[in-house]
Write a structure and sequence with these properties.
The chain has 604 residues and is of the alpha+beta class. The protein contains 17 helices and 30 strands. A hairpin with a 7-residue loop joins β15 and β16. α8 packs antiparallel against α15, α10 runs antiparallel to α14 and α15 packs parallel to α17.
Length: 604
């Protein structure tokens, strides 16, 4: 706080001490926060360290009734002061002729001249007694705190690390996170020690243990989180597998297994979804072997190196589950070299899958209607394939503990292995039938062109219905024509009807395949054609059984090989005949069949 003295009007230059002397004290007048303020008019005022050194000042002009409080020259002016002053000598002079005794205003140092002027309507209405003023101080050579730092301030850009009232002055402060008096040896204290959010710097071991503990805790937390997520994923995956297993007929399969006395069902392997996905290269389109009404078949390789065929079913409705499970149960019960072997199944995926042995040479349909020029079907191969198919069907109808009807015999369901041996596949629509039953009543299933007309009319499937479908395959092998063509479909005819009409008109050799005409013997062709005609009889009761068909075809093969049929099948020495792993009792063979056998043997 400083006392304010009035200015007397004078055209002569006058000087006086402004404020109080600070010489001998550590204080200086702050040039940063203080300014020279002059109230009044027609006065010129300048200040300095002495009367002879004027360093700064300002001039005022009079304007009555002015309300301007900006202090920019009208009734008021202000100016900066030099830094580092311990006393201020003021020199002033009135610029117009006035009475020397007249009051002309005030001059003083202050930090708030604007605030003072805002309270006045006129600088002549009130006399000032006191005004605030900022002082600064500094030690000559302070013992600074080690946690503090100092900055030099200079208006002349002269840097100095010690006090110089003209050139610069030094200001010290505590470093970050320290507080206190920076001019004392230990004046800056670490505020982290008093703050629970911080830890004192001196406790390095404590900090180290806390850091290690925090790291281990975080690691354990992450490990626990990872294990929890993994466990949740396993649980979700297991729930999905159980859901798919139930939806894909797993419970029905379990029921079949529990009610069956066949150990082969228990040996059926359940493959995992990952195993089959890896085997088929994620079901790559390049691995597709074929597509059908029930699904897509992929070629795959298991981890043990076995090549397999993976049958990926289409999305099944609830009514189709029985068809899928039925195929598993039926094929698992069959152990025959001319039946494609079922290796296992997978029920834990969205759609169920079956895994079969891989048959490399495609379908019989491909070889008949799109022949391989390098290895075409010869007459001998056709006779052998026909005999093998008849043998396995006879086995299914007669030699198993419960007769099995395939119900979809056609050339696309007959595969050829590496030695071109026939293997029957696709047992999805097959059915087992009790021995005392004569037929199976179901909704009509099968493929047009191979379907038994009698079954189509009555919905009663018998063993003779398989015989009819086999007869169509025989005609395909004889003629090289497809069971159904667009031309015949328009007329409502089929290959079977065309064949029967040709036989009736004695035009058999007009419809035969060129390969058959070239390589086949006339009597063999006629015998097989006659057997096919009997298989295609519209009255199922007049068709031969598959056992009879198998025996007749075997007789034709034996005759071709120059063997004595009579010596091979001597009633006094043999009471049964083995056809493709099935044993057939001759006591049940019809008289018509024995007649054919005797005729074959006598013509040898």
């Amino acid at each position: 706080m400083q006392r304010v003295s009035p200015l007397n009007c004078s055209q002569e230059r006058r000087s006086q001490l402004l404020g109080q002397k600070l010489i001998g004290t550590p204080f200086v007048i702050s040039a940063t926060y203080n300014s020279l303020a002059v109230l009044g008019c027609n006065n010129s005022v300048w200040v300095g360290a002495s009367e002879t050194t004027g360093l700064s000042g300002c001039k005022t002009f009079c304007k009555e009734n002015s309300t301007d409080t900006s202090c920019n020259g009208v009734n008021c002016c202000h100016a900066t002061i030099p830094p580092g002053l311990q006393q201020v000598q003021m020199t002033y002079q009135t610029v117009r002729s006035v009475n020397n005794s007249r009051f002309c205003g005030f001059a003083f140092l202050t930090d708030q001249y604007n605030g003072l002027l805002n309270d006045l309507l006129s600088p002549f209405e009130q006399e000032f007694v006191n005004a605030t003023m900022f002082l600064e101080w500094e030690l000559d050579h302070p013992e600074l705190s080690p946690n503090g730092y100092c900055r030099n301030h200079s208006r002349r850009d002269v840097q100095s690390s010690f006090y110089d009232p003209i050139s610069s002055f030094t200001v010290c402060s505590c470093k970050r996170v320290f507080e206190g008096n920076p001019y004392l040896p230990n004046g800056c204290q670490d505020i982290k020690c008093n703050n629970p959010a911080y830890m004192c710097r001196g406790s390095r071991v404590q900090i180290m243990f806390i850091s290690i503990g925090s790291g281990l805790g975080g690691l354990i937390l992450l490990l626990g989180l990872w294990m929890s997520i993994k466990a949740i994923r396993r649980r979700v995956k297991a729930i999905r597998k159980r859901k798919f297993f139930k939806r894909n007929g797993g419970l029905l399969l379990q029921q079949q297994l529990s009610s069956s006395n066949d150990n082969s069902l228990e040996k059926t392997k359940l493959f995992s979804s990952n195993e089959l996905a890896q085997a088929s290269d994620q079901y790559n389109e390049n691995r597709v072997l074929g597509r059908g009404g029930q699904g897509t078949v992929y070629k795959g390789m298991l981890t043990d190196g076995r090549i397999v065929a993976i049958k990926k079913s289409k999305r099944l409705d609830e009514g189709d589950l029985e068809v899928f499970i039925n195929e598993v149960v039926i094929v698992s019960q069959i152990n025959h070299r001319n039946v494609v072997k079922l290796l296992g199944c997978c029920l834990e995926t969205e759609v169920p899958m079956l895994v079969y042995e891989f048959i490399p040479n495609g379908t019989l349909h491909q070889h008949i209607h799109d022949p391989n020029e390098e290895f075409p079907l010869s007459w001998d191969m056709r006779v052998r394939i026909t005999t093998e198919i008849a043998g396995v069907l006879a086995y299914l109808h007669s030699a198993t503990s419960t007769p099995i009807y395939h119900r979809d015999i056609k050339s696309t369901n007959i595969l050829l292995d590496e030695k071109y041996n026939a293997k029957i596949s696709d047992f999805g629509t097959s059915r087992s039938i009790a021995i005392d039953q004569t037929h199976l009543t179901t909704r009509v299933l099968g493929t047009f062109g191979y379907l038994d007309p009698e079954y189509f009319r009555s919905s009663q499937f018998t063993d003779k219905s398989d015989v009819y479908s086999f007869g169509v395959v025989m005609v395909e092998l004889l003629t090289g024509e497809k069971a159904v063509t667009s031309m015949r479909a328009e007329t409502g005819s089929s290959l079977a009807m065309h064949f029967l009409d040709s036989m009736e008109e004695n035009n058999l050799f007009d419809i035969l395949d060129a390969k058959v005409l070239k390589e086949g013997r006339r009597e063999e062709i006629e015998a097989i054609a006659e057997l096919a005609r009997r298989c295609l009889h519209l009255n199922g009761k007049r068709r031969p059984t598959m056992r009879e068909v198998a025996v007749e075809l075997e007789g034709i093969r034996l005759k071709r090989e120059g063997s004595s049929f009579q010596q091979t099948y001597n009633d006094s020495e043999f009471h049964s005949i083995e056809v493709d792993e099935g044993t057939y009792d001759f006591t049940s063979i019809s008289e018509s069949t024995l007649y054919v056998l005797n005729r074959c043997s006598t013509s040898t």
